[in-house]
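Researcher: Predict the fold of ABC-2 type transport system ATP-binding protein.
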Amino acid sequence: MDEYVLKTRSLTKTYRNTVALDNVTITLKPGRIYGLIGHNGAGKTTFMRLIAGLTFPTSGEINLFGYTQAKHLQHARQRIGFMIEAPAINTSMSAKENVHLHRIIKGIPNEELEQELLALVGLQNTGKKKARNFSLGMKQRLGIALSLIGSPELLILDEPINGLDPVGIVDMRNLLQTLCAEKNITILLSSHNLSQLYQVATDYIIIDHGKIIETITLSELEEQCKQYVLLRTNQPELLVSTLEKELHTQNYLVMPDKSIRLFDFTDRMETLAALFQRKNILITNLSIEGNTLENYYIDLMERSRNV
Ligand SMILES: Nc1ncnc2c1ncn2[C@@H]1O[C@H](COP(=O)(O)OP(=O)(O)OP(=O)(O)O)[C@@H](O)[C@H]1O
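Model: Structure tokens for ABC-2 type transport system ATP-binding protein follow.
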């Protein structure tokens, strides 16, 4: 079934001399967490502002929950929540007062929602403390609580992790995963740092100079950045049969140059070295190889810029 929350077709936004977003065609499916990754100025905020209706496209189409026409789109936008640029909080008010104010503005009668949302984002015990005295992580979580007031099906968050300390990052990751898994909210969040969103997002959309240069799922990314033991020997057949017989693994590849990539035992180099010595296999290389996330991202950028 072709289920989707959002589809864009050739979405483009130009400012006077700048193409901020260039022919972006993507589909977001429900129940997933999408990481929009790109350097400063890549077009992430512009994309989010377009979807949220904060600015208008120069050309192209936005299809939100099946609606494309301007008047229907505006209605469909009631089903999204967003925190773009700074969280919309009043810093002279407490967390509870902020949530209350936004609930009233949105005309939502359910008062219990206030406490429920504060608990969800971990701010239920902040009492009268004013938001100006909150940590950045607390402010971000309050901003998310505000964007959840209309019970959105799609949540758009611009750099919610940026600037958080390690504890704040863990809290934010847990919150996002809870929202997706337990509240069934599809999430689109941006970051300029791929590793920041690693293990949080299920899908990664890499953007550069306004263009999507790659979309990749978490498992594909893990595959790309997989570590392996690189083995070289002049007895590759013997080595392979030893791996199978002694270590009971077939998780290896023999490369055209007869080197062997072993994807198991990456943390057991001593075991491997001892085994090959015992079996009198002369090893000329035994090292851990593989792309790091950082290298993967840098390579991707370089390749796209050289096209
Ligand atoms: N209102 C505007 N007027 C003119 N140019 C703009 C405007 N908004 C964005 N731009 C330009 O569009 C491009 C994309 O900007 P955008 O803010 O979407 O990038 P970004 O990926 O969100 O970057 P950052 O991480 O720095 O926020 C940049 O070159 C930016 O200078």
